[in-house]
């Protein structure tokens, strides 16, 4: 059993590492409360990760709701006022974009942005992001 788990963890690591090289470039914007209800889990407050790193996604990712619960590693590439730092975050999809058409590939709450950014800085900005879907959620729970 232990060798099976070791193999599984190794495969997941390889998929996630390769996925980083094969990721997509898109945009991210801030969106604020209220966050409930969501298209994925309705009024369930427990759907939100405790770190506040969740996302509402556009049609390109939504996949008729199949995106619910998927996790993406995101890294800022560029934006106004040079907002990017050398770090990435993992976000979980909990909702579909509120606007038609969507204003960005992913909409994120304030907590998901860089700690050094003010809410005024991110509220009207669109950031260019690199993202890749994480195939194994086991590492990021």
UniProtKB/TrEMBL annotation:
Residues 1-23 form the signal peptide. SUPFAM superfamilies: Barwin-like endoglucanases. PROSITE patterns: EXPANSIN_EG45. The keyword Signal applies. InterPro entries: Expansin/allergen_DPBB_dom, RlpA-like_DPBB, RlpA-like_sf. PANTHER family: EG45-LIKE DOMAIN CONTAINING PROTEIN. This is Expansin-like EG45 domain-containing protein. It comes from Quercus rubra.
